[in-house]
């Protein structure tokens, strides 16, 4: 009796794991989908307890052996944006900046809020040349430059 409905059970497991993978994209449940497909393929040839064992073995082996490789190739921790091109640029400060008040710089005609590095405790006056050292949230971290842009 149970052997007759195992194909539907494996199909259900397959659909649930594919939907779960699509929702999370963590490359965990996809390997159980592989195990469910193999179990579904053999369900007419072996008893149900063998199907369950094969499902478990295939799923766990594929998870253990391939997930680290897939994670390595799909690593998305570095996200470059067009604003990364700002780092290292030297610009003129449009509004004074200090530890307690944001300043402004203009790049390509757009005003951006600036702050100084947290460890620093100085003021930079409007019109001085600054170098962009980092991006922090929606603010640009700048440091004072003593030389002029032309040099």
Commentary on this structure:
This protein has 151 residues and is an alpha+beta fold. The protein has 2 domains: 2-73, no CATH class; 82-144, Beta Barrel (OB fold (Dihydrolipoamide Acetyltransferase, E2P)). The protein contains 3 helices and 5 strands. The chain has helices spanning 2-24, 29-42, 48-73; strands at residues 90-95, 103-107, 110-115, 129-136, 139-144. It has a 5-stranded mixed β-barrel. β4 and β5 form a beta hairpin. α2 (29-42) runs antiparallel to α3 (48-73).
Give a quick precis of the structure.
The protein is α+β, with helices and mostly antiparallel strands. The chain folds into two domains: 2-73, no CATH class; 82-144, OB fold (Dihydrolipoamide Acetyltransferase, E2P), CATH 2.40.50. It is built from three helices and five strands.
Protein traits:
151 residues, alpha+beta, 5-stranded mixed barrel, 3 helices
Biggest β-sheet: count, sense, barrel?
5 strands, mixed, barrel
Low-confidence stretches: none
Please, what is the average pLDDT? 85
Tell me the span between the first and last alpha carbons.
86 Å
SSE succession = HHHEEEEE
Structural shape: rod-shaped
> How many strands in all?
5
SSE map:
Elements (H helix, E strand, L loop, with lengths): L1 H23 L4 H14 L5 H26 L16 E6 L7 E5 L2 E6 L13 E8 L2 E6 L7
Parallel strand pairs: 3-5
Antiparallel strand pairs: 1-2, 1-4, 2-3, 4-5
Helix pairs in contact: 1-2, 2-3
């Amino acid at each position: 009796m149970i052997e007759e409905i195992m194909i539907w059970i494996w199909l259900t497991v397959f659909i649930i794991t594919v939907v779960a993978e699509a929702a999370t994209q963590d490359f965990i449940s996809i390997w159980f989908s592989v195990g469910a497909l193999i179990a579904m393929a053999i369900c007419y040839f072996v008893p149900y307890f063998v199907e369950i064992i094969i499902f478990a073995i295939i799923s766990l082996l594929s998870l253990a052996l391939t997930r680290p490789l897939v994670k390595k190739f799909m690593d998305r921790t570095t996200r470059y944006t067009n604003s990364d091109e700002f780092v290292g640029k030297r610009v003129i400060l449009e509004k004074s900046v200090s530890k307690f008040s944001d300043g402004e710089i203009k790049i390509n005609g757009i005003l951006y809020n600036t702050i100084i590095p947290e460890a620093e405790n100085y003021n930079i006056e409007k019109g001085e040349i600054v170098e962009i050292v980092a991006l922090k949230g929606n603010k640009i971290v700048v440091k004072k430059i003593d030389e002029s842009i032309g040099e």
